[in-house]
């Protein structure tokens, strides 16, 4: 807990002036509030008792003046505390976002999208609100508690025992509530994760939901997690709410006790009426300040759960990191070699998805990767730009272990069009030059032409300046894939990776893309993952994967003649006309 507080406190440091001013102004407000009961005592015991209207008027005006000064302090405290807490929240959220950007694929596999959204939004908001409350209530409550207690003892030492008798009861109530509420609020945040995950999945796959007429199923799934969240929140809030009536009961018992014992002292002449009224005021303020602590404790219980979840992100270390000494200036020819590579997701405890792979690709070669679903094709190509690290063996580019290269330097030399074409909100032009923001318009057009995207782009009303909706929703799947290929080509990389990136285009368009790419691929090493065997017939080398191992390697002619698995794939797609293509 200390580590969490220390880490999060750093985000408040840039706003220390506001964080200091807020408590100072709150101290001013509390001081003015504590003087009010003494003024009331003076009005009753001096002004009214002696029928001196001058004292009543002067003291009343003084009370108004003190109240105005207190109001200024309260408003200033609120303004400065809000500024400090909002700045704190913005910086924390920004740091979390940068942390997410630094994570490797393995980290993101563990921290799901729905969880990360919750942590960057709701969790940060919970902590931000508690920081704001700490700068106000956490200052006001102790000052009010100590000040009221001291002044209550000064006002009537013989009644002060009431406060000391009731305080342990209030403390016990607070302890009981906090102990039970904290784990419940942790569960609330987990339920919120589940809700965001379902909502994110549904919105991302809304077309699939419509296509399979699964609206009712998704509504039920959302209703279930929504009701889970509601039930858990009600349970947590109900547990937290238990403290309020018990503290109020304690407060009322204190007032009754003060009236009973204080009234007897007033009748006996050992206590003045104004002093009794002032004492009851201080008694109520003392116990009410503890009630404020109860409210703050509840918010802190929920914020603590959020803080632990935020710290999990802040403390997570990228699974793929640069070594201490890495090469930053590197322009490879494109020779790629896998040397006895074994890889598994989530560490050595899991079964490997790639097993002892060894092959090489010479500069300018086109290497095609074929295999059934789950054979490890995408896993293989994800290792080249070091999205994941190998478990055993090594991958080299021009003889240099990719782990000895700076990650950014490595990836700037690799153009990649992933299986899922991800586009961002913005223009088509901005999406194509996403990896090279300084690329000229001529270079953008050239890349689009090579990817067979230029014709359909120019037919759009605004051409390359056409604004895309979220995830490129106003383009077809094939159009998005061609934009993604153009984006990869614009990098002019030494190594080009196409991960089944033409699966959504028609055969004619795919043929045109292949013809255009043939010229571009002469100067760069390319890896092509394909489902259609027709895509890779002219590849310099074809790798056939099966259950994470290479079961075939060679040209189309060689594999067709000697590899039964390749021949089976070929015949299943193109029939028995082997001689036509052989």
Description:
This protein is of the alpha/beta class. The protein has a domain at 2-314: ABC transporter type 1, transmembrane domain (ABC transporter transmembrane region fold), CATH 1.20.1560.10. 63% of the residues lie in helices and 10% in strands. It is built from 21 helices and twelve strands. The chain has helices at residues 2-9, 16-48, 53-102, 105-110, 113-134, 137-155, 161-204, 206-211, 215-241, 243-268, 273-314, 377-383, 407-412, 428-432, 441-450, 454-459, 477-490, 507-521, 556-562, 564-574, 578-581; strands at 336-343, 354-361, 366-371, 392-397, 400-401, 414-417, 426-427, 467-468, 495-499, 525-529, 541-546, 549-554. The protein has a six-stranded mixed beta sheet, sandwiched between helices. It has a four-stranded antiparallel beta sheet with strand order 2-1-4-5, covered by helices on one side. Helix 2 packs parallel to helix 6 (137-155). The chain is elongated and about 115 Å long. The model is unreliable at 577-582 (pLDDT under 50).
SSE blueprint and pairings:
Elements: H1 2-9, H2 16-48, H3 53-102, H4 105-110, H5 113-134, H6 137-155, H7 161-204, H8 206-211, H9 215-241, H10 243-268, H11 273-314, E1 336-343, E2 354-361, E3 366-371, H12 377-383, E4 392-397, E5 400-401, H13 407-412, E6 414-417, E7 426-427, H14 428-432, H15 441-450, H16 454-459, E8 467-468, H17 477-490, E9 495-499, H18 507-521, E10 525-529, E11 541-546, E12 549-554, H19 556-562, H20 564-574, H21 578-581
Parallel strand pairs: 3-10, 3-11, 6-9, 9-10
Antiparallel strand pairs: 1-2, 1-4, 4-5, 7-8, 11-12
Helix pairs in contact: 2-3, 2-6, 2-11, 3-5, 5-7, 5-11, 6-11, 7-9, 7-10, 7-11, 10-11, 15-17, 19-20
